[in-house]
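Protocol step 4 of 6: record predicted structures for both targets in the notebook before any analysis. Target 1:
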Amino acid sequence: MKPASPFLRLDDIPRHWACVAPDHPAIYQDGRVVTYAELWDCVVAARDFLHTKGVSTEDRVLIVAENSLALIALLFGSQLLTAWPVIANARLAQSEIAEIREHCQPSLTLFTHAASPDALRHGVSHRAVEVTPPGLPTFMVSTATVARDRYASERNPDVAMLAYTSGTTGKPKGVMLTHHGLLHFARMTQQARRMTAKDIVYGLTPMSHIFGIGTVLLATFHAGATLYLTARYQAEDLTAALAAGGISILQGMPTLFSRILSQQQRVGKAKLCAPRLRYLYTGGGPLEPCLKRAVEAMFGQTLHHGYGTTEYAGSAITTRIDHPRADTSAGHIIAGAEVRLVARDGSAPPPDKPGELWVRGPGVMRGYFRDPELTTATVTADGWLKTGDLARMGADNALHIMGRVEDVVVRAGVHIQPAEIEAVLNAHPAVRLSAVVEAIPQELVAFIEMHDGVPFDPVSLHHYVQESLPSYKRPSLFIRSMLLPVTASGKLLKRHLRDALRQS
């Protein structure tokens, strides 16, 4: 029988390890080592600073940041006051930060400018003041508030934080994540990776994203392991850290692994030296077969995959460490979760046919902040979360994610998932990334981002898809994009592409 978790709240995690293993490294960043005892001192200092600013229960604390010690301390420090931290990626546009700020109505807005030039830019625009509270790194503070309401905490005593999703409508959606749900996710992630205090986890994925906050930060600390923290991808830093024998777990969006591959190709190396690396994982987006094969060849080990969503506090499905997969399935259901597939008419789809993925379990969000109507439309009365993602169940009960329900195109009476077409295009040796959208009803347009130095040849691409796709799945038009629009965490922003087509 497994021992009960010692954690009831997220802030219990650093407190526990500060007592049990005070001298064990919690964070490596920029050549500095921060022990768990030092991390807890920073968390307490953050709590004390926020308290002096009047932060208390029910308040939202907006942290405009990139990965850093200051961000982690302010996150846990807010929770010690039973306030709700809201992490916004500093790379967002000013208008996007303004939308989040207007929606969450923070009592305080903080900018970790010492670790992020973009946070500095936002801090200056908000006329924030630089502070260096005792025991904390330097950051900026803006006390200017928007019109603010109180939110009845007695209805949501377990809410740990708000996480804003990129969404597809442009409307900010603040997901109320619970301590219970996030702790369950951290524990399941630790178990799935067999993480121990000996592990060193590469921490690049932004903590404004559920992947970064749950899979990277909380699971690492739940295990009492060490986080190799970095705010931005630097090829030389990563390859040096891997070669030095420190990093044992490497996780990131598919775009991270594409960057690593491109860097290795530029330097002419087919293999990457990583003597202590034992676990590779990608999530937060679709995994292409060609990317999986290339990464596994470069590292000489399995690239694991999974599926999660912000509204479920992280992953509900993952591949198993003892059963490597040759395909790009997201794997099997994580303990505690349930899934079902639902066809358009509400029935179960035929075997091996896609349906909308519904999830139920401890990770389901408390709801969307200040949007009960959307909450009711997304979570059923009996607790099923409608993810909006299409999936099919394989013969071995593994889940295969097919794309978004809203992206499905009906052409010649057939339902087409653009992700299928993108997988074919992304396998073309000249194509770095593609995005397929419906321009006008039943007409497909493919936006193409080419590899550096490769000419754009739409005629060649037309011939390529003729050989690889049936006529009803072929794009009518190929458009070159120098840089496809993505979120700060690396997800394609197809809404921007559709808007551009409508305007043109």
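Target 2:
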Amino acid sequence: MSLRFCVLGLSITSSWGNGHATTYRALLRALAERGHDVLFLERDAPWYAQNRDLPAPPFCRTELYGSLDELRARFAAEVRDADVVIVGSYVPDGCAVGEWVLATARGISAFYDIDTPVTARRLADGGCEYLTPALAGRYPLYLSFTGGPLLDKLARSYGANARPLYCAVDPLLYEPSSQLARWDLGYLGTYSPDRQPGLECRLLEPARRRPRLRFTVAGPQYPSAIAWPPNVERVMHVAPGEHREFYGAQRFTLNLTRADMIAAGWSPSVRLFEAAACGVPIISDAWPGLEDFFTPGREILSSQSPEETLSILDDLPEAERRLVATAARQRVLREHTAAHRAVTLEGYLQSLSMSPGHRKSRRVGEITWPRSL
């Protein structure tokens, strides 16, 4: 039996300047393929309106709203009658949206934190605009992009029922490309001040030292003051539909992690799983928990300096490069697809629907669990 999901997220129609859209697209497509009905509600923002690369996702119904008042007026019935209502991080007016959802929904309500380390820091500082300490504990389910010790901290500090729901990849969209490599090393990511030192260390300085090699950095919002080496090609934006070809044009791809995520650990980026699914070997920074997702040295490579990056680019035999790429792709297909995450989410909903005293949707309770891959 299918469930009715209502998801209120930052964006699904535009991937410009955010990593939320690709996550929602993969997860909601997987839920739809498993027979569930999905409605996505998105605040109509001008910067997304000008850059909509998937204005009408075929796997779910998508509705835009202009304000909190419009959301309440137009979609109260959908939120009330849904079996599962999920509110995402960074949703505009997220605190008010969360209060309204908890007061309106008859089914299971959940918060999906795609930015958990940032959220935890802002909750502690009192500056989180989309979640309050009280709300964190009142959502029956707190889904988190980050696992590890941070989940215990959320439970202790706010009473959150926190469970990991990591990002994932849609293997239908990401697979190896047959094209020849155009760049020796590339990076795909929106500019972030705390990632820039890692980019400088692991890509820009190696580019200066090896003028004969070719590099690329793709993503918006990089300051005009950055001095790009002449052998680094800048690409302003790569839409998700072009990610496969972009990764396929690289001998190696670089993964960089934001400072909050490094400190928390267990925070894999969706770019990790995308690149691995495309059969491109990854050079990554190191952080606690990385080995839970990929085996270092066999499925992923690590660099902490320009010298280590150049050692990989200069000295790693082609046969070994291909072995790393193949092993990473096999690991992703075995553990890190959106279908795996959909099954995980169904399991959480089953457990919650069976917990004593929970006000659950009748339809959630009627499903035959578990529904395996």
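Step 5 preliminary note on target 2. The first strand starts at residue 4 and ends at 9. The chain has two domains: 4-167+337-366, 183-335.
Proceed to step 6 after PI sign-off.
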